[in-house]
Amino acid sequence: MAAGIKSYLKNYLSITKKDWNGLVILIVLLIMVLAAPYAYRLFHKDKLINFNDFNALAAQLPPIDSNNAETNTSGIKNRHPVLFAFNPNHLPDDQWHKLGLDQQQIEVLKHYEAKGGHFSKKTDLQKIYCITAEDYKRLEPYIQLPADGPATIIDINHADSASLVTLKGIGPAYAMRIIRYRTKLGGFYSKEQLKEVFGIDEEHYLLIKDGIKLNPFAIHKVNINKATFDDLRRYPYLSYKQINAIIQYRSEHGDYDNLNDMKDVAILDDATLMKVKPYLVFR
Predict the structure, then answer these.
(1) d(CA 283, CA 277)
(2) Measured in whole angstroms, how far is the alpha carbon of residue 193 from the centre of its chain?
(3) Residues of the chain with pLDDT under 70
(4) How far is CA 282 from CA 51, 258, 261, in A?
(5) Lowest CB count within 10 Å: 17, 26, 69, 219, which one?
(6) Short-list 113, 133, 108, 115, CA closest to 123
(7) Gap between the Cα atoms of 103 and 224, Å rounded
(8) Tens digit of each residue's pLDDT (9 = 90 or more) over 181-232
């Protein structure tokens, strides 16, 4: 019995020559994997950084003015330029920067002025070598020089389309929109009302504001105590609900004596009343 067990264990624990060779190869591979990092370090030395050279190069860089870093950095332009009507003669540095020019360009312009240079027409700015074609294309519509202004100041409460198109940036389509809106209102009482015309934004307004005027006495007014719904709906400042409320309150409480009486109409706010005030009479 004991001899049988011994024979069984011997057969179970014994390995073939093929198995032995595989085991040897596995052990060799494990030794190679474990030794690889040490071999790499032996044959590949890390290069040391020479901080003396680095510090010497850093010392050659110009100092940075932290209080004025954006405007004093040559070659860096304002990433968010603001366009507005301007006269390029003796324009302050911060205004040039606001228009999108970098400090190097501004210094060239100031040097040109210091030598007696003067911009008498728009194309003079284009001749300055620091102004790129892209810069000039962007700035040209906003350059305002005496020679570039309109021959006459246009009254927007009387001007026809032929007169309006002489304004910078106003074509036939804009001229017709201005006339239609003027007719709807009964005339303009403020230049800034032009910004209420579809398509005329702040930039358009700045281009034309110095070439226009208005006659406030040309406004067509309506008697609020006799006005019908149709008389009042022309005004873009009043909603249909507000118009109905104005008429209903007048029917119930009698005529309005002044603008303060209209404040009693619940859905009329002060801002709306100030917009319609120039168009109303009470007697």
Answers:
(1) 14
(2) 22
(3) 1-15, 43-78, 146-151
(4) 86, 6, 10
(5) 17
(6) 133
(7) 58
(8) 999 999 999 999 999 999 998 888 988 888 899 988 889 999 999 999 999 9
Total residue count of the chain as it appears in this document: 283
Residue carrying structure tokens 């073939």: 16
Name the residue type at position 179: I
The residue whose two tokens read 């860089």 is 61
What's residue 186's pLDDT? 93
**AA identity, residue 108:** V
List C-alpha distances in Å: 168 to 158, 171, 208, 212: 18, 8, 6, 11
| Predicted TM-score (pTM) above 0.90 | no
